[in-house]
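notes to self, project folder thing:

trying the whole complex as one job this time. last attempt i did each chain seperately and stitching them together was a nightmare. two parts in total, labels are on each line so i dont mix them up again. if this works i'll redo the older ones the same way
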Amino acid sequence: MFSYNFKYELKLLLRSKWIQLLSILLLLLFGFSTYNGKEKVAKRNADVVAAKNKVKENDQMMLQLLDSIEKGMPVSASRWTIPTSPMALGNYHPRIAAVASQPMAFVATGQADLFTHYVKPKVTGDDFALNFTEMTSPVQLLFGSFDLAFVIVYLLPLLIIAFSYNVLSSEKENGSLRLLASQPIGIQNWVLQKLSLRFFWLSALVILSLCVTFLIFGIDWFSMLKSFLLIIGLIVSYMLFWFSLAFLVNLWGGSSAKNAISLLGLWVLFVLLSTVYAKSTKYYAISNAFTHPTN
Amino acid sequence: MTRKTFFKESKELFRDGRVRVAMIIVVILMCVSVWISARQYQNINEQYKVANTSERAIWDNQGEKNPHSAAHYGTYAFKPKYPLSLVDQGVDKYAGTSIFLEAHKHNEAQFSAASDQTGLARFGDLTPDFMLLFMMPLLIILLGYNSFTKEHEMGTLTLLKSQGISSWKWIAGKWAALFLPILILTTVLFIIAGLILSNLRDFGVFDWNALLWMYLVYTVYYIIFVNLILFISAKTKKSGISLVVALSLWILSCLAIPKAASNIAEDAYPYPTRQEFAANVLKDKKQGLDGHNPWSKKAQRLKENVLAEHGVDSVHKLPFNFDAYRMQKGEEHEAEIYFKHYNYLKEQFVKQSKVYKGLAAFSPYLPTRFMSMAIAHTDYATHWNFADAAENYRIATQKFLNKNFEQNAAYGDWSYRADANFWKQLPAFEYSPPQLGAVLSQNFSNLGVLGCWLVGSFALLLFIKKM
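result (full assembly):
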């Protein structure tokens, strides 16, 4: 029975153009989000490189200045900025302290658009732990980024819902359930097999499109096989969770539309609302705690 | 006939268990979100008051001090929270809440709530704006996805045809039945919000007109969704497909396009990093007058000019303290530099806004979001407005302090101390956001886009035929 199910399910999916549609959709979504993630990481890296180059340039000028001082030539710099003093060096020629981006950083923007990626610590000055936000438009932060994590966390469950909400109910609605009932297989078992097959095909499509996308964008996933496999594992487990929900709803549910609405309600609950947690942030207290320097 | 369709549809909706459950859930979530927001609003307002008074007390009681030391000692400008932020939190979570006002430096607002939270903060918040912008359209989809498709599926279309009902009357009936529950829900919510707001202690600048405008914006937003959902339902054959198409539309306009817009806008018009910004400012500052450096070329030229103007040959003979005068001039010069650099940020944002407005052609969510934030005074423009007001106050404060130094101390006397009571004479920082009229005219283009959506979506309904 399983082999029949396997064969006809594949035929069904191919003929109803589900596989073709899903492949194109996944490729588009993964492609666009990976591009966005890569752009963000590239900008971040370019910013750090530019800052480091600037330091190098300044160092050249500083060395020239030191050279002239050593030779006893008059210099035009103010006396407290002359780098023969360690304090002047520490204050006027700071180094760069940067957080290097990890190879998988393009997958999720997370809080990376909020925080600064490099600072220039000086001898004097404020504690960097006080303010480490980056200069961005808050509208940007409000809408967030269209990254791979968004596609996986928000959109993939919706694809799964669209792909599986009517597995049983459509048989009912088309009148083919009676035919099915005459087959030597329990209805639970049948739904389980059918959904497992869909899970298998969707996982295969997701992994394949992810590989293709990474290939197109020149992401060397082979060299970071471990994190790549970890991400694949994460995605597949997440998909399994949604397919299990779909399985339960299919068994319990009634009409196709009813199932779709129940699953959608679960999506809203898990993706949008479950992250709501009580938080009372002290906005203004922080700046007050920032004690004033005494002259 | 319209009326009959309307009653029949309403009755059907009311009898449907799913619809009742969904309505009840939405109402409960709305109430919870309003309650959470009202509590948070009061909480933040109290924090604001405490911070404001204690900061002013610190300033007032700093004792005898050189005015320029006081200028470096600095004070804070705190961004107030406005009543309508109860309805729409806007970008408040992501924008800084306080600005440190000190000599020589135009600081950016810092300490945003989001920077204290984890990545989870980016997911949904249970706030009224989340309910109004995301959940209500979803409810409309739920109520209306099968409005036309069910006539096919239940075979009632043939019966309808025999009634001789005209197409537009039929559509009008369905439209009214779908829109009325949404309208009632929205109206009740806004009335509750208005009552809560007008009963809050010291509700400040709350005005019912702003709430009314917000109500109008959201009503238009829902009308657009009602029209689109009815159109989709009429153009698809099966309820399931209609639901999927309607949901895709919702995801696109509420989630995907805003995010994509944010990526595109940032790619096209990026902000400089904080360090770059600081470096650019420093570069410009070096070329100009430094109030603390009497030996620079600019300072020397200033000295010569002032001496010539007053017809004396030494700064000691001037009727005021030249150190303070020079510092004030330096301050003015630095303020100009900051003005230029912050203006660049504003220009970048104006260009980014154009990207958002362009993409608003594909998403009614975008203009609604921007309008709602603007009316609630939680948008980026209000934030800029506040930052500008704080900067003007900073410049005035520096002038006030330098003036005292200039008139009361002899040249070179850096040991001069201003009286302990002097600080109280500095007027307190007052900020009031732009009036509703100004906000509306500033956001005229967003209103226009929303209007186009309204007209366009009604035009789509014309394409529905009875088949």
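what i see at first glance: The radius of gyration of chain B is 29 Å.
need to look closer tmrw
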